[in-house]
Amino acid sequence: MGVAALGVGIGQGIAANGALNGMARQPEASGRIQTAMLIALAFMELVFLLAFVSATFILSGKLAPGL
Hints:
Helix content: over 70%
Number of domains: 1
CATH class: Mainly Alpha
């Protein structure tokens, strides 16, 4: 779980850095860059949420094997 959070945090920082650099170099393309960045950030958050849900299921099976 911690590795997933760390990876998503680093990935989002790199994506935001790249998007800001792209917007600074080409201000006329900032709308397209921003849209692509938001979609990429949403996919990263989805990966984290899937890791959270799978960790929850794994832990619930180990903590309460009868359920």
